[in-house]
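Friendly challenge for the regulars: who can give me the structure tokens for this chain first? No prize, just bragging rights.
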Amino acid sequence: MGRMRENPRYNVISMRISDEERDRLQAIMEATHKSVSDIMREAMELFSVQLEQTQSGDQKAA
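First reply, four minutes later:
Bragging rights claimed.
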């Protein structure tokens, strides 16, 4: 029987990438010793922070 997780992950997302993108991802994985999933989660978090900053900057300008 599997372990109960605090935040279980049931959703799977797949995507197609080019050979060049795969090479870049592989290099990141080797340099950071992280999985594709961990790298994509971190990238999503960074993108979210950047988007929030952009949106808050737009609101200040208005």
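The chain has a mean pLDDT of 91. Residues 11 and 37 are 12 Å apart (CA to CA). Your move, everyone else.
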